[in-house]
Amino acid sequence: MIEYAVYFAATCFGLAFLMNLWKIATAEGVGDRVLALDTMVINAIALMILYGLANGTEIFFEAAMIIAMLGFVSTVAYARFMLRGNIIE
Amino acid sequence: MSLFLIAALPFLGAVFPALLIRAGRNAAAASTGAVTLLALIGLVLHAPAVLRGETVSARLDWLPDLGLNANFHLDGLGLLFAGLILGIGLLIIAYARFYLSREDPMGQFYSYLLLFQGAMVGIVLSDNILLLLVFWELTSLSSFLLIGYWKHLPEGRQGARMALAVTGSGGLAMIGGMLILGHIVGSYDLSVILQNKDLIQASPLYAPALILILIGAFTKSAQFPFHFWLPHAMAAPTPVSAYLHSATMVKAGLFLMARMWPVLSGTELWFYLVATTGLVTMVLGAVIALFKDDLKALLAFSTVSHLGLITMLLGFGTKAAAVAAVFHIVNHATFKAALFMNAGIVDHAAHTRDIKQLGGLRHLMPLTFTLAGVAALSMAGIPPFNGFLSKEMMLEEATHAIWAGTPWLVPALAVFGALFSVAYSLRYIAHVFLGPRRHDYPTLPHDPGAGLWLPPAVLVVLVVLIGLFPNVIATPIVTAAANAVTGADVYFHPALWHGLTPALYMSVAAVLGGALLLGGHRAALGIWNNLPRPEAKAIFDAIVGAATGTSRRFSDRLHNGSLARYSAIFLVFTLAIAYYAFASGTLGPETRAPLPVTAMPVLGWICLVGSTLSVVAFHRNRLLALVLIGVTGLIVSMTFNYLSAPDLALTQISVEVVTIILLLLALNFMPQQTPRESSPGRRSRDVAISVVAGLGVGGLIYALMTRDFVLPSISEYHLANSYKGGGGNNVVNVILVDFRGFDTFGEIIVLGIAAIIIFAITEAVLGSRVRARLLNRKPWSPLAGDSHPLMMVVATRVMMPIALMVAAYIFFRGHNMPGGGFIAGLIAAIAVVMQYMASGFSWATDRQRLPYHGIIGTGVLVAAVTGMGAWFNGLPFLTSAFGYVHPPYLEKFELATAALFDLGVFLAVLGAVLLALQSLARYAWQPGIASEHPMDINPERDDATQTIEGH
């Protein structure tokens, strides 16, 4: 049963991933694209965990955790850059 | 004392003056002197055995596969030269202490001097020609530093460059000659080579080897036509001239010819090459010396002439001539070093070295006059001084030399050279010290303190003693050295009176002629000035200019600063090579079936292609390009995960974050758009090249992955031995810290160097006028929002301990699971950088307790000490050890030295990343723009509201 759930979830997140890509390529302004990239990072975490579930391994957990912990740093840096120009004032 | 220690002492000791100069100039000089004295004592302890005819040796295999071994030996010749180098070195050190002024960086001087001394001692003690070549190059490099010591003088810099260019290219030729020689004999050990005279001289490669080696020796010993660098090197401080250009470095070429004498000499080729060059150099140097008005230039050309004399004697190829050569090496070193120091004293006292402005100094400087008089008379070859003895022997040998069937040519030219030699020697006395006292000296000269006159006085005493009692003082060492040169027992019994020999008549003729010539100096100078003569410096500059121009034209076409052009050249070249390989090689059949296509890889493929195409489409908007590259980075790290490389995935993720911060810091100073600069034709050419290159790489990878490897890969070994040999289950980490630990060690050093260079460039830029422009920079768009938003500050503060904990976790598990010091260092660095971003540069810098340089250094040291620990167990550098412990109440766990090494990696990465980012952040830092407080709005702070209103 869990198998089907994982497949279903993976399909959803995969589609979301493609939509993110579409937005990153076509959205108006850099701000929206950065947001789309941030969303894509979150979807990537989900896909990694799902892949681990499907294969019964914990090896991807750390990668997902580190992406979760550090992914927002680049988004913040982009935001600072767009608002202030200088990211370390 | 071991020969290793004697050779190593000057190098080790070079650290002391550089450090002790902070304790004063006396401390620096004393430490340098102590090091030299220690080496000299070590040498003297070996002297009795060597004088008995034994050879002391010390051998150590260094790179036996290449034939490069650290083999040293000490025979008579080595003892003589090492004694000269260390003994005169000691005097020079004392002299330099009083010669250099307060403004000169004396610690630096003594360090260079010791490096040079070590290189020279290394040359004369080497028993391996490859080792000898290493030291040979070291003398060129260290003498470059010494000649150019007065960096503020253009002559000094030019002279140093010229000396390096000439002796360095000669050194290259000599490397070729030595390699040929080693190839003929089949061994690079001198002691073996010297046994194989017949083999070498019968070889068809004898002539090229000889010529190449002689080019090396001639350039170093300033033989015609390479003599021109020596006078230009006189821009060096006088102690350097006295040391390098009279006693040591220029004698290295002579030493080499003497060392190789047993196997290379005795042929016609040797005689005509060496004796002729020596003869021409001797005459030419002596003639030019007479017409030089600068004291040091006079001495420089006189040195050229005397070096020619010794070369000629070695070229004669007879044993008696070789003995005379060795004896003259000793005598020349004593009187010429004394004269150079003397010229320095005159320069110091009168503030000029121009003979035209001098004269009559004997009234003001009687002591200096006495010393100069004795040394110059010895140089002229006047009895009873030591120069007379060896000059008589030279003239005697010249009478036996028959050049191309003419027996009178060599003796006649030898007398001619000796005549000019007498003239310039007497000129040094007559035009500087004799004559009436003048009243227009730049400053009123007077005798110097003991520090300046004592060192030359020691040498002058030797000049007299060797002249009077040659058999007591000189015979043992000269005999031992000459035995080593000729490889046979020689008879050496110098005496002031030989009877009425031809040499005596020649000597008398030279002295009388020289005195007459000096009397007619004014007339002779008139003739000389009207003679057309090539100016060596102009020719040298023209050659160097032409070479520079040609290479610049070539490199400017390749390197015009356009990245597109570099990539185009690189890609076309690579494609050509790849096409050649594909066309000339064979491609085996496909042995692996493709895997079925599943949804995940397709998703990743679409994203990769999509983001890459988008980067191509939007690459002129730099920020957007960075965002799109972020997608590529994310997909790449997910691919690493999918293909079971979690270590790489973790690294990729953390590197991605650091890169984005780095690029955003840089983008702040760049235009937001890349302008269109190239023509449509060039763009379509570039598109074509890149499409072909992309298809080529794709095809290559496809071909690789559908076939098995031709050779078994080394992965099997790593997988099999990772746990057994390295104690870790994570093969990637075990490779990094154990199997390939030495590579990693080198990499963290390079990383640290790179970060420190970024820091240094930042320091230099911010110390220049650019600083003002940076401080007054106006932002390119209106600033929005807060500089230190409360939300971000709180979030990053909360994240910091978590991130550090994760870093520690990743670090400790690294040996067995994905992770390790590198990734942990990156994560910890990001945790700190977050604080910089949130609360600002000033706030974060104030809280930085340990300098990042220190962290980098500690990391490298920890790794090095861990690696060296293996030595104490008798194992090679970086051999790891591990064991398992079972503490009560806990599961068993592993303790490995590799973890300590990994700690070094962690610290080096942490320090390097932070130092680089902090340096880049300093460019944009403008005081006053952002508040110094950690947060712009802080409910705890009373003045918060006012500060906001004030903005």
Reported for the largest beta sheet of chain B, the result is:
2 strands, antiparallel
Mean pLDDT of chain A: 89
Number of helical regions of chain B: 40
Largest interface between protein chains, with number of residues from each side: A-B, 43 and 65 residues
Structural classification of chain A = mainly alpha
Strand content of chain B: under 5%
The total strand number of chain B stands at 6
- DSSP strand (E) fraction of chain A? under 5%
Spell out the key features of this protein.
heterodimer, A: 89 residues, mainly alpha, 0% strand, B: 951 residues, two-stranded antiparallel ribbon, 6 strands, 71% helix, elongated, K+/H+ antiporter subunit F (chain A), transport (chain A)
Structure in words:
The complex is a heterodimer of chains A (89) and B (951). Chain A is mainly alpha-helical and 89 residues long. Chain A has one domain. Helix content of chain A is 85%, strand content 0%. Chain A contains three helices and no strands. Chain A is flat. Chain B has 951 residues and is mostly helical. Among the domains of chain B are: 283 residues, no CATH class; 227 residues, no CATH class. Chain B is built from 40 helices and six strands. In chain B, the strands form three sheets. Chain B has a two-stranded antiparallel ribbon with strand order 1-4. A two-stranded antiparallel ribbon of chain B has the order 2-3. A two-stranded antiparallel sheet of chain B has the order 5-6. Chain B is elongated and about 110 Å long. At the A-B interface, helix 1, helix 2 and helix 3 of A face helix 27, helix 28, helix 29, helix 35 and helix 36 of B. Chain A: This is K+/H+ antiporter subunit F. Chain A: Its main location: membrane. Chain A: It is found in: Cell membrane. Chain A: It is a multi-pass membrane protein. Chain A: Belongs to the CPA3 antiporters (TC 2.A.63) subunit F family. Chain B: InterPro entries: CPA3_Na-H_Antiporter_A (IPR050616), MnhB (IPR007182), MrpA_C/MbhD (IPR025383), MrpA_C/MbhE (IPR046806), ND/Mrp_TM (IPR001750), Proton_antipo_N (IPR001516).
